[in-house]
Specification:
Strand order of the largest sheet: 1-2-3-4-5-7-8-9
Distance between the termini: 69 Å
Oligomer: single chain
Shape: elongated
CATH architecture of the largest domain: Beta Barrel
Protein name: Polyketide cyclase
CATH class of the largest domain: Mainly Beta
InterPro entries: Catalase_sf, START-like_dom_sf
Number of helices: 8
Number of strands: 17
CATH topology of the largest domain: Catalase HpII,  Chain A, domain 1
Radius of gyration: 26 Å
Largest sheet: 8 strands, antiparallel, barrel
Structural class: alpha+beta
Order of helices and strands: HEHEEEEEEEEEHHEHHEEEEEEHH
């Protein structure tokens, strides 16, 4: 038995670390929230009816009462509204007599006193569907569960929500009413309350962070395997963004890529401080024949216009490894010698990408920043949260190669 517990602990611990690694990768593209990037803040009440017909073993569920609730509804992957996504509803529930915990509030303690956080995701309702995430277009007809059970006095307890009524428009335009249920992992659902939510007068997202491991309902406890699966991801999600991921305000504003002004999403941006001068770095960039030495993916240079790197100049390169190489070209769209270079890099059939390279002179050092995103072709069809980590990883290696060539005197 002890050996089996050790194996189970090792498996769930490894899975938790794997999820955390994925979250760290996603933070390259989404430094603030790697999943559930955008949400809608809601508030309301939860009326608990108790369980006179049979106790769940969780004090909070078995006792009737009225709770105040702050909630956040979101789409997990952040896919376009026209595509199905995993729906999420996070609740911060305040017990009677307590004020609703607002943004920045610590929530409940491990003893179950104070506000509690309960997280739901769209799943099936029967077996085994209640333990499987189900993408949905919207909340109409969707069912949600906590996916992982709590431990009560009588064993594991799963919580679930089912929509009773929706506002005529969007969730921001009226009251959303849901029934609260509980069940043992393989048992029938039993209704034990009603949740009513509505948006404020100015609907929008909220900065509140939810933690169901630290803030648990009275009488409920997270299983050890649940903690091993979830805790590393929660910690990774709240870590600062990797130092190579930096904002690129000048470039973005110049091309109207601000998320607030135009609704467009910013380019994938990485930066590295070189131990060489800006002049040394620019010599490498200005020599088009060196392009394949530092740009990841370029395998050879076939020709370079004499005007390179002047505006409109092209270099003709190949992409891929022999014998599977594709011939294409890269064109300069804007240049400020010694300071910046904007390119449209072609690599069909994958498509085209906009690349912005900027140099910040720091004497004997130079900070080099590359901002890039797909602008045309199949690469543009890949969801941004998936393509950004790939672009960022490739451009970090590109910066490392460029620094080595600059330090080594290439281009002189």
């Amino acid at each position: 038995m002890t050996q089996q517990l050790r194996v189970d602990s090792a498996v769930t611990g490894s899975a938790g670390q794997a999820f955390a690694a994925l979250f760290r990768l996603l933070k390259i593209a989404r430094p603030d929230r790697p999943i559930h990037p955008q949400g809608l803040g809601l508030s309301g009440t939860l009326d608990r009816t108790g369980n006179p017909a049979g106790a769940s073993g969780i004090d909070w569920l078995d006792s009737p009462g009225a709770d105040q609730v702050v909630a956040r509804f979101s789409r997990s992957l952040g896919l376009p509204q026209a595509l199905p996504d995993i729906l999420g509803l996070a609740l911060r529930v305040s017990p009677p007599g307590d004020a609703v915990a607002g943004p920045g509030s610590p929530g409940a303690g491990s003893d179950g006193s104070g506000p509690a956080d309960v997280l739901f995701a769209s799943t099936g309702w029967g077996l085994p569907g209640r333990f499987l995430l189900v993408p949905r277009l919207d909340v109409a007809g969707a069912t949600m569960t906590t996916l992982m059970p709590y431990r009560g006095r009588q064993g594991p307890v799963l919580l679930g929500l089912r929509t009773r009524s929706l506002p005529a428009g969007s969730l921001a335009s009226g009251e959303w009413v849901l029934g609260l249920h509980w069940a043992t992992p393989g048992g029938a659902w039993r209704e034990c309350g009603e949740l009513r939510l509505h948006a404020g007068p100015s609907p929008g997202d909220i900065p509140l962070r939810f933690d169901p491991l630290a803030n648990q309902p009275p009488g409920a406890e997270a299983y050890g395997w649940t903690r091993r699966l979830r805790k590393p991801s929660y910690l990774a999600a709240r870590q600062p963004a990797p130092p190579a991921v930096v904002p690129h305000p000048g470039s973005l504003a110049k091309r109207g890529k601000s998320t607030t002004g135009t609704g467009r999403k910013p380019m994938s941006t990485v930066s590295l401080l070189f131990n060489s001068s800006a002049a040394d770095v620019w010599r490498v960039i200005a020599d088009g024949w060196l392009y394949s030495g530092w740009v990841v993916g370029a395998s050879r240079i076939r020709d370079v216009d004499a005007e390179w790197p002047g505006t409109g100049a092209q270099l003709h390169h190949s992409v891929g490894a022999w014998p599977l190489v594709i011939n294409d070209s890269t064109r300069v769209t804007a240049v400020e010698p010694g300071r910046s270079l904007e390119l449209v890099a072609r690599g069909w059939p994958m498509g085209e990408a906009k690349v912005d390279i900027r140099l910040e002179d720091r004497g004997t050092q130079c900070r080099v920043t590359i901002a890039e995103d797909a602008i045309r072709g199949p690469g543009r069809l890949m969801p941004k949260f998936l393509r950004d980590p790939v672009i960022s990883a490739r451009n970090r290696e590109t910066l490392r190669r460029l620094e080595l060539m600059a330090v080594g005197g290439a281009g002189k």
